[in-house]
Write a structure and sequence with these properties.
Number of helices: 13
Structural class: alpha/beta
Shape: globular
Order of helices and strands: EEEHHEEHEHHEEEHHHHEHEHHEH
Largest sheet: 7 strands, mixed
Number of strands: 12
Strand content: 15-25%
Amino acid sequence: MNSAIGKTGIVRALGAMSGTSLDGVDAAVIETDGIRIHGFGASGYRPYSDGEREVLRAALGQWHGPDVEAACVVIEAAHAELLAQFDDVDVIGFHGQTLAHEPRGRGTLQIGDGAALARALGRPVVWDFRSDDVALGGEGAPLAPFFHFACAQWIDVRAPLAFLNLGGVGNLTWVDPTRAAPEEDGALLAFDTGPANAPVNDLMQTRLGQELDRDGALAAQGQVKADALEQFLAEPYFTRMPPKSLDRNDFARTVALVDDLPDADAAATLTAMCAAGVAQGMEHCPTPPERVLVTGGGRHNRVLMDMLRAGLDCPVEPVESVGLDGDMLEAQAFAHLAVRVARGMPTSCPGTTGVRAAVGGGTISHPSDSGQHDLNRRAGISG
């Protein structure tokens, strides 16, 4: 183990995240001992080009083959380019890119070779965060909740609150900040709420050649199709008890309900589906949260935020309202988790992923390591 990481003390960790919205790579530095946040450092963003995004889209949902290998090249090159810009860090947390997620089936696949990045960047890299959780019966997602617990301590709150991440898929973390540790029983409950930005982004790309519905401008011009929304909420997923997780394309048949709608109505209806999924999810919280803090790209969508405020019984605010960075929270999370993995601490527990017991996943690769890692191992695939 790198002596700078050690077993105790504060280290500078750099985390990277490429989400299912396929916009680009986020990277951020935090100072942490793996338990508490002690400070925030520099951050950066590297967008994908249109060509890179098409390569990644072509590989979504696949487990093997040339499309997956082509996507690996994009992911590793983009991360290496961005992460090389950061100096004075002790460890890097590399999430990779999720292509397929089937925790009760074939496993979970995040592409990108952390060992290759460690050699290229000259820093230890922690990666493959999800496989061990899936192997022990967990959903493998979401993994940010342990960092959300640290964020609740950082902002010094005492009442239960919720963090809502609106990326390609929505996920909710309910936090009781009075508990001693995130793995303590009752400290956390986390789960995916349903599709978030991904269906709207796909609609905008397919119909208009645009990356996203910026600020909800198109949705603001449309009307929500009530029967499509009703059919969406009839999906069995919403009545399943958490923890639970989704693949980016799990709701593809349902969101196809808007195929025949005009552009604005389709955007409004997909946006309403995201908000309705969150409202349904809130019913699973052990106690009502005092407020909901929203992170991820969805917080910039004014129509979506208005829908959330109308549908929830508590204040809904972007995380910036408490001094956090909603664009970088997930990258910061994997910086924090990297330190926890390096120090043998758990990164998920029954309340966050449904895993049988608290587990600390992740592989640690050092610059001196050599050899290829088996893609099936990273995918959590058996057989």
